[in-house]
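Lecture notes, unit on protein representations.

Consider one protein chain, 449 amino acids long.
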Amino acid sequence: MRHQVVIVGGGFGGLYATQALKRADVEITLVDRRNFHLFQPLLYQVATGALSAGEIAAPLRYVLNRQKNASVLLAEVVDIHPATREVHLKDGSHLAYDTLILATGSTHHYFGHPEWAQFAPGLKTVEDAAEIRTRVLLAFERAERETDPEVRRALLTFVVVGGGPTGVELAGALGEISRDTLRHDFRRINPAEANIFLVEGTDRVLPSYPPRLSAAAEKSLISLGVQTRAGALVTNIDECGVTVKTGTSETSIPATTVLWAAGVQASPLGKLLADRTGATLDRAGRVNVNPDLSIDSHPEILIIGDLAHFEQDGKQVPGVAPTAMQMGRYVAGLITKRLRNERVAPFHYWDKGSLATIGRNRAVANIAGFQFSGHFAWLTWLFVHLLYIVEFQSRVLIAFQWAYDYFTFNRGSRLITGEWAEHHMPPSADAQTCKPPRPSSQTRPAARL
C-alpha cells in the first residue's frame, strides 16, 4: 500500500500541505469539520458587510478534485492513538496513518473569563462573522427607534477589545460604516455620531509592528472617529458594556456592542495530543515542536500552523497565514524526502513582512525592511490578499466588489438574517436594563465639583 498521510484541518497549513504532495507517492486523506477552506484574513469584511461568506470560502472537494492522490472527509477527529497510528472520528470510525499532520488552528481566548464570550464574540468562523454583522447592524436599527438619549448613546457605542491587526481592521471598518456607508440610511439618528473605542493592553496599537507604523495606524483610526485606549486592561465585560483599567483607575464604557480581538488559544486537539503522547504545550495550548515540526518520540506526527509553537532565533514565529503556508509546504517536502531516505533540513521561517489595513486608502506595511503607510500600502494590501485567494473566480468577484464599494461607499452584504436575529437580541443589546436608577425626589442632588 502507498504511504498513508492523514491531514487534520483544511485551513492554510492543511490545504497547502495537501497540494504540495500532489506528485508524491502517497495517499492523502484531508479531514475537516467543514467542507470548505476559509480565507480568514478577510473574515472581518464579512463581519462588516463588505463581502459575503461565499466570496472568501472555497469548497475543499472542488479545490482538490483534480488531485488524484487526495480525498476529502467531512468529519471530526475526537481521539488519536499513536501506538496503533489511528485517528478516531466522532461517528465511531477510524483512519490509519503512516504520517499524521495536525493543522487544526486556534480559537478565541478570553484569559480565564469564558463568560465574556456571550457579550463579546470573537472572529474565527463564518458564524462568528454573521453574528458580529447582525449585532452591529441591529445596534443602528434599535438606535433609530430609541427615544431615550442615554440608551441611544449606548446603542451607538462600539468597543473593540484588542489592538492587533484584526482589532484595527474591525475598528477601521466600523468607522467607515458609521461615517460613510450608513450616512444617508437613517432619518432619526446620525450614524456618524457613533462612538467607537479600540482598547489595547500594551502601550500602542499594532504592538508587533514598528512604532512608526503603529503611530501611522493610530492616526488613521482617529481620522475615522475611532478613540484608541492604549495601556488599558479589560477587567469586566457584561450586558452593560466594558470596564477597563488604566494605571490605578477604572472606567466603565456603556456599550451594547463589544467585539473581541484580544487573544487566541490553540485548538483543543493540542491538549488531546499531549495527553496521548506526552508532548508539551505552551501557555496558549500550542504544541512545542522539534526543528522538523515533529514531536518527541513520534516523528510521524507533524504539527503546523497555529497549533505549533516553533521558535526561530529565540523568538516564536507569528501565528499568521504565511507561517501556516510555509509549514504546510515544508512538511510535504519532509514526507517526500523521508520516503527517499534523504536528509531533511530544519524548518526555516521566511518573514515576508506584515500588512494591516485601516480603511479606504489607509494601511501600514512592513516588507523586507521597508516601512510605509497610506495609499501605496493599501494598494499593496489589496494585491497581496487577492493573490492568496484560493479560487480564481473568487479573486475576480472580490476585485469587482472592492471596486464597486470604493466608488459607491456601499457595503452590499449588510444583511440581518437568521432565526437568531428574528427571535431574540444578544445579551449585550438590552441597554434599558443598564440605565442607572433616577434619583428620588427626596434625595438631595450631589454638589458639582
